[in-house]
Design a protein that fits this description.
With 273 residues, the chain is of the alpha+beta class. The chain is 17% helix and 31% strand.
Length: 273
């Protein structure tokens, strides 16, 4: 027997990000250079060196956050052996948990959840990494796309990728270089991604898709600088006795993870004017 359902939305960020496994009671911390040294000066052979006063270090830290869910189904449903009903429930739990994480990796506010790529924050990607010049209140332009590209240092270009909604993807079809050559290069092989200004582009159903003044519409960057710290993969426990009086079975699920952009200069966000 076949289960009819709409296609599930793909989750993108985890596949692009850098992931770490940490103990349940621990966090992931890494030293970060917050200010570069500035000591070299020209002088004579006997000139004394200038002492640096700029070099400084801080720390970025991820603390895995708890998330949970519960599905209750009837025992009659679970007796339908032809459908593999328990497998269906477990798949649905995994899908729901993945979508919860994807939303947080994009728009989370760091309050008992990850810090998202599209959340302006001094702890992640600040508004100093936003580009809107050239874009209109409702549309992205070539000037805006180029502004985002050149807001990234060229050293990040080889691994940089776009991420945006289907609506953003669709708008790109109408943008050319002024001589009729499209900026959007559509892939000709199934499984290959499209490209814009030479960078791969990914469609994410959870990316911002409100095209009005001041709204984010895409992000360009090296997603290896979005870090995910997993302390507990999705864990599912079957509750046979708790709901027995109502002839039901519960499936409770838990996970523990955190995520954040750890190097803001590796990203630039595109917003409307």
């Amino acid at each position: 027997m076949e289960l009819l359902k709409n296609l599930d939305d793909q989750t993108i960020v985890r596949g692009l990000a850098r992931t770490f496994q940490v103990p349940v009671a621990k966090s992931l911390g890494v030293p970060k250079r917050t200010s570069k040294a500035s000591t070299w000066v020209w002088g004579t052979e006997i000139s004394p060196p200038t002492k640096d006063s700029q070099l400084a270090f801080g720390k970025r830290e991820l603390h895995p956050k708890n998330a949970s869910g519960l599905i209750i189904v009837s025992r009659d449903f679970l007796r339908q052996a032809l459908m593999g009903p328990e497998g269906i429930v477990r798949e649905e739990i995994a899908r729901d948990g993945s979508e919860l994480q994807e939303n947080a990796f994009l728009a989370g506010n760091a309050a008992n959840q990850p810090l998202g790529l599209f959340t302006a924050s001094a702890d992640g990607i600040s508004t100093g990494r936003d580009i809107s010049t050239g874009n209109t209140a409702t549309e992205v332009t070539l000037a805006g796309l180029r502004g985002a590209k050149y807001n990234l240092k060229p050293a990040y270009w080889p691994a940089a990728e776009w991420l945006g909604s289907r609506k953003f993807h669709q708008q790109l079809y109408s943008i050319d270089d002024g001589n009729g050559r499209p900026m959007f290069v559509e892939s000709v092989r199934v499984g290959e991604v499209d490209r814009v200004l030479g960078f791969p582009i990914h469609i994410d159903e959870f990316a911002p898709n409100t095209f009005t003044t001041g709204q984010y519409v895409s992000i360009l960057g090296n997603f290896q600088y979005y870090w995910i710290a997993d302390a507990l993969d999705i864990e599912i426990q079957r509750l046979d006795e708790l709901y027995a009086l109502s002839n039901q079975v519960g499936f409770v699920a838990r996970l523990k993870t955190d995520g954040m952009p750890v190097l803001e200069e590796a990203f630039t966000r595109l917003k409307l004017g």
